[in-house]
Amino acid sequence: MNGLILSGSVLATGAAATGALFWRYRIRRRGRYSNLAALRPGFLEQRPAGFRIDAQQDQARDAFRQDLITRVDDALAPETFSLARTEASAAAPHVERSYVPAHKQGGTISYESMHELAPTCLAIYHSPVLRDWLSEVIGDKVVPTADYDQSSCSLLVYDRAGDHIGWHYDHNFYRGRHFTVLISLINRSAAGELSASLLQQQRSDGSERTFDTSENTLVLFEGARVRHRATAIAEGDLRTILSMTYSTDPRTGPIKELARRVKDMAFFGLRALWD
Ligand SMILES: [Fe+2]
């Protein structure tokens, strides 16, 4: 009996200590996210992102309202594209690799890491010009998603033969509708042509549609309603995409937040559960 009481109290003490450590860790992480948010106005001031999307707004809006997916060419101004591309190349050694059997493999630079490795890309994500343009095309005001969501703004890096992601919908973890914006920064084969990876949509009748993702194209879609995939790259290919998420209401609840963290394990491993 005494042994049982002792075991119970050891377990309770262990659980309380673990809980306290976890809570302390969470508070530290929250402080980290606040610090990153405080740095951001500096990024925007030093590196104002330039775009060439204005003239393509009407065409993009018409296509999006019809299919919930649209694309534009030459989205970034040359200087911004060049800076973002250079950041994407330099960030390659810091990629976190992930592998989900029969579904995906590839590398990712998380939102948190982007603050150190890709400030121009962050300036693109937080640009009021892009936000207003997207809001107009979508027909509803959108804003960036949460600081602690490592997929809010990330680099998706395919640099090993076979890197890809299979057919899927993007689950929506927010109260409002949420949208994915992809800007192709690097997309080339060893011979200097396009990589073998294709961004495809599967329509409700089962037919497939391929979207040109040449460098500096922008694709906007509502991932929760558009089934999509990126096919595999070939040996010697390199494909780096700036992936950004916006929502009409980025608030979330505890169940959706937990679900988002479980999903992010496919990109960032176990740390996505508590970071
Ligand atoms: Fe997706």
UniProtKB/TrEMBL annotation:
This is Fe2OG dioxygenase domain-containing protein. It comes from Maioricimonas rarisocia. InterPro entries: BesD/HalB-like (IPR056470). Pfam families: HalD.
